[in-house]
């Protein structure tokens, strides 16, 4: 296996502006979403890469439609994760955090 680092140095908006703007047409929300997928910035990508610990589902219609339900869901997840973290010994917690953040930006490719 080959391991090397990859870093995203552009926002989805910047990527879309460079790669997707054609013939003077406006960049659409779909273009931004495609750019996010290419840059691996979706929640699912970040979860699969180990950068985030969990994806919190949004209420129907989006988080902005039901702020109370969103806050409740976020609160439950935070409490659960904080409880798990508080059970760990400091040394183990530091090692886990160090290992996790050292992996950010690294990609493994199989040959």
Short description:
The protein is mainly α.
Task: Tell me what you see in this structure.
- This protein is mainly alpha-helical.
- The chain has one domain.
- 53% of the residues lie in helices and 7% in strands.
- It is built from 5 helices and 2 strands; from the N terminus they run βαααααβ.
- It has a two-stranded antiparallel ribbon with strand order 1-2.
- Helix 1 crosses helix 2.
- The chain is flat.
- The termini are close together.
- The N terminus is likely disordered.
**Low-pLDDT stretches:** 1-7
- Head-to-tail CA distance between termini: 6 Å
Q: Biggest β-sheet, characterized? A: 2 strands, antiparallel
Number of strands: 2
Topology diagram in text:
Elements: E1 2-5, H1 12-19, H2 29-38, H3 43-48, H4 67-87, H5 90-103, E2 106-109
Antiparallel strand pairs: 1-2
Helix pairs in contact: 1-2
Features:
5 helices; disordered N terminus; mainly alpha; 111 residues; 2 strands
